[in-house]
Amino acid sequence: MIDLEHVTVTYPGSDRPALRDVCLHIDEGELALVVGPTGVGKSTLLGLVNGLVPHFTGGRVAGRVSVAGRDTRTHAPRELADVVGVVGQDPLAGFVTDTVEEELAYAMEQLALPSPVMRKRVEETLDLLGIADLRDQPLHRLSGGQQQRVAIGAVLTAHPQVLVLDEPTSALDPTAAEEVLASITRLVHDLGVTVVLAEHRLERVVQYADRVVEVQADGTVTDGLPPAMLAATGVAPPVVELGKLAGWQPIALSVRDARRAAGGLRTRLAAVPVPDRRPPSRSGVPALSARGVVVRYGSRVAVSGVDLDLAAGQVTALMGRNGSGKSSLLWALQGSGPRQAGAVAVGGADPASLPPERARALVGLVPQTAADLLYLPTVGDELAQADRDAREAGHRPPMAARAVLDQLAGGIADDRHPRDLSEGERLAVVLAIQLVAAPAVVLLDEPTRGLDYGAKRALGRMVGDIAAGGRAVVVATHDVEFVAAFAHRVVVLAAGEVVADGPTAEVVVASPAFAPQVAKVLAPLDLLTVDEVRSALEAVG
Amino acid sequence: MTVALRRPLAGSERLPRSLHPLAWWLWALGLATAASRTTNPLLLAAILGVAGVVVASRRSDAPWARAFRYYLMIAAVIIGIRVVFQAVFGGVPGSSGHVLVTLPRIPLPSWAAGIHLGGPVTLEEVLSALYGGLRLGTLLCCVGAANALANPKRALRLLPGALYELGVAVIVALSVAPQLAESVQRVRRARRLRGAPASRRRGVVRTIAVPVLEDALDRSLHLAAAMDSRGYGRTGAVSRRSRRVTGVLLLGGMGALCLGTYGLFDSAASPALGLPVLMGGLAVCVAGLAAGSRRVRRTRYRPDPWRAPEWGVVACGVFPAVVMSVTTGGLNPSTDPAAWPGLPLVPLLAVMVAAAAAFVAPPVVARSPVARPPAAPPQVAHPPAGGAEVGT
After folding, report:
1. Alpha carbon of B215 to those of A419, A433, B219, B222: distances in Å?
2. Hey, is B85 helix, strand or coil?
3. Which of A53, A158, A204, A521 could form a cystine bridge with A258, CB 3.0-4.6 A?
4. What's residue B340's pLDDT?
5. Pairwise CA distance, residues A361 & A435, whole Å
6. A450-506 pLDDT, tens per residue?
7. What is the pLDDT of residues B16-55, one digit of tens each?
């Protein structure tokens, strides 16, 4: 179905190819999972399939790409629209019309299908994806999961033989991601659509993949069957890491298979004491104390009377589905967002009553779109500006922004443009800028979205270091594996209220949606991460 | 047999559906034409009332349908401005009429001769400003009624195939504006997080403009890529000759249009250059558009039908326009001397006919209640209806 023969892609202004001598053959009806660290050319590989590379992006392509017998050299993306459907990361960015039904029909209108066919296909697709009750809704009023399913439906109505999905779930909460992935696997199994899928959260999809395509840092590509590929690669979900550690053959890809293979491991580890997960103890006074925080937008209540104490040296994870009030709470705690009622005290002061340059010395916030904070042409300028701001505001930064950044993440050169950085690097720059003000409390809003396993580990380390420096850290995130590995405490919000609050192990394991893979495999043992299993195994000997 | 067939058909005309956008626009333009023919405040008020009644009874609950109220506000502002300007600048000393109030007169330097500031305000002048403002406001409200009654985006889809790209550009621009506003708001909040001290506020424009513009560019690139990969801009095979013919027709038509307009307004030009050339240019342009539309292969999903109710609504709008154009009595009541305006019966009845559009047009479709972002567990997908056909 998809054939790549010795394909090399070089973008203009770049001295080394983004993809190097790629030979790949994907059969009809396969689900090919594209993996690899961020920024290595996964999107380039996906773009090749429908000709967006090079017709839209520019660059030089050597070799030959053919899809369903059509050469992308002679066929522009629009000429392939009836064969290949493409769904991107942010569904809203790709919507052309404004209601669900019209969006589903858009591609068919372009293909000049007769009206009765369009009517029939729209109805079929609405049912196929379970969105029939949304048909006349405006697109921007849908939830993230619904929007993504509409985006998938909008390309399906053209009856493509190939579906290309570039990280379709990266902006979604676990439940919404589940909905979308369930729809995708259903298409593969029932309809025989060939799917090429790039995804960071491998733990959700790897068990459904027929083939894993790994893009290496140097632009070469290897592919093979999932168990063999994942056993060899560094980018693997916890269940695979656990399998490697325990030496299972063949390696288990799903929690179900792992649980069946883990009988021996569980007996071996039964006697191991619960690992010590307490944060380093600090003085009893909370770094931040909030009482009865209420945030309202018109008649809609986003946060309804939340009490929260944050201890210095502790990493707290804030979880809850999209729209449960996580962001509103963080902004209210920082003092820049609206707060209709309640009190926040950091070291005796309310950050909302202080001017911005003093509020940020109490509470630093890294917003969801961290890039909003950056506006200068180079990283060096940004860091220098942060130092200047801190001096002018009268903070006494313990060290310069550059030194903070190097501690967080090394090797980000001064002359790079902030927009060219990877998600993880950009996050580190923004964190460094916020830390220069030496806030007692650091809040991060969804820092894990779009990060690969390596970047998430690096972020976890950064967060741990910041907390170890005596600050209180809050991370709002959907990523249960990240929470299990790096958070001391978990607060779960639902409809603006705190529904669970306690040590990570207790909160996370008790919930089927939030339990990390290792906990699911090893229940009833109290182990959450592969690292904990590793040290437990060492203790047993 | 015929009776059995006809009954459900007749009934189906009354089923809720949205009226063809063009019908609403023609109706509103008819009403606007009627309004432009008169300065009688009673007639204008009747026209406003008719527009209000029809909007209230036949608008949907979509966001654009709430726009009518804003048009009313703008109309009020227009009337206010006109009256105030007339009062402040219009006072000419020694003018006859009933002086309502005398504003303090501000002497202006000699180079501003001819402009008066302050002075006596007479009833006659205020009335004439009021009538004029009311007429302008009513015209605006007629356009507002069309906007509230017809989905503006669906109206754009009626453009001929050759102008399809233009329509899409307008639609995309319409949806980008709110996104841009949202973007500015987000970045401004983020700027507070960086806490720029008060001494350095001058960088504000740049620090907000740069991320917002980068955001907008990113977004438009995404949208362009998405549209491209969904088949936007696919063209059928067209011969080079037909492309050339289209180009020549359009360019020639445009040129003739320009020339004709010039001829029409320049009194020194020969009369043959005016209207005839303008009409000729228009015809050539239409031919060019038709030729251009032939090369576009595109279909429309659920096109709006044009049936009896559409004809009816258009007739309701055109009727008062025709009546107002032929009658003359009582349309422009005297303001000097000021007199209570009379209410001419025939035009009033004609305006009332336009209100019948509220009954002629089919009822609006009730939308299903808005699905809130999932507070409920994810729904179970339905079994596929003929799903085996999807995907090949």
Report:
1. 11, 21, 6, 11
2. helix
3. A521
4. 84
5. 9
6. 787 888 888 999 899 899 888 999 999 988 889 999 999 999 999 999 999 999 888
7. 888 898 999 999 999 999 999 899 999 999 999 999 999 9
Q: What is the band of A523 on the pLDDT scale with cuts at 50, 70, 90?
A: confident
* Tokens representing residue A128 in the block: 């196929």
CATH 3.40.50.300 segments of chain A:
2-232, 312-338+351-510
- What is the spatial order of strands in the sheet that A70-71 belongs to? A19-26, A2-10, A60-67, A70-71
Question: Is the predicted pLDDT of residue B140 greater than 90, yes or no?
Answer: yes
Beta strands in B238-300 (DSSP E): none
How far is the C-alpha of B133 from the C-alpha of A269, rounded, in Å?
87
The answer to whether the Cβ–Cβ distance between B229 and A77 falls below 8 Å is: yes
Q: How many CB atoms lie within 10 A of CB B377?
A: 8
Interface check A186 vs B, CB under 8 A: yes
Instruction: Report d(CA A407, CA A458) in Å as an integer.
Output: 11
CA distance B71 to B74: 5
CATH number of A312-338+351-510: 3.40.50.300
Residue B250: predicted pLDDT: 86
Quick one: pLDDT at residue B381?
35
Give me the residue spans of the domains in chain B. 17-157+302-364, 162-233, 240-299
- Token pair for A374: 């950056």
Say which residues have a Cβ less than 8 Å from residue A433's Cβ, sequence separation at least 6.
A373, A382, A383, A386, A401, B194
State the average pLDDT over residues A96-108. Answer: 89
Please provide the average confidence, as pLDDT, over all residues in chain A.
88
Q: For residue B334, give every residue at least 6 positions away whose Cβ sits within 8 Å of its Cβ, in sequence order, or none.
A: none
Q: What are the DSSP calls for B193-252, one per residue?
A: HHT--GGGGGGHHHHHHHHHHHHHHHHHHHHHHHHHHTTTT------HHHHHHHHHHHHH
User: What local confidence, expressed as pLDDT, does residue B84 receive?
Assistant: 92
Residues 77-136 of B with CB under 8 A from A: none
CA nearest neighbour of A243 among A499, A540, A530, A538: A530
Average pLDDT score over residue span B190-218: 74
In this prediction, residue B384 carries a pLDDT of 36
Question: Which chain B residue's Cα is nearest to A359?
Answer: B195
- A190 in reach of chain B (CB within 8 A): yes
Q: Which of A86, A144, A357 sits opposite B195 (nearest CB)?
A: A357
| pLDDT tens-digit series, residues A395-413 | 777 788 888 888 877 778 8
What size, in residues, is chain B? Answer: 392
- Is B181 in the A-facing interface, judged by CB distances under 8 Å? no
pLDDT tops 70 at residue B11 = no
Do the Cβ atoms of A81 and B229 come within 8 Å? yes
- Domain A2-232 grouped into CATH 3.40.50.300: yes
To which residue do tokens 């040290």 refer? Answer: A535
Residues B259 and B281 sit within 8 Å (Cβ to Cβ):
yes
The mean per-residue pLDDT over the stretch B106-110 comes to 80
- Asked if A17 has any chain B CB less than 8 Å from its own CB, the reply is no
**Min Cα–Cα distance to chain A from B129, Å:** 40
Residue B203 binned pLDDT confidence (cut-offs 50, 70, 90) = low
Closest chain A CA to residue B199: A392
Q: Residue window 17-56, chain B: list those with CB within 8 Å of chain A.
A: none
**Spatial CB neighbours of A484, under 8 Å, sequence gap ≥ 6:** A504, A508, A516, A518, A519, A528, A529
Hey, is the C-beta of B2 within 8 angstroms of any chain A C-beta? no
Residue whose C-alpha is closest to residue A529's, from A328, A182, A277, A314: A277
pLDDT above 60 (res A69):
yes
Which three-class secondary structure state does DSSP give residue A494?
strand
> From the candidates B64, B180, B301, B304, which should be mutated to test the interface with A, based on the most A CB atoms within 10 A?
B301
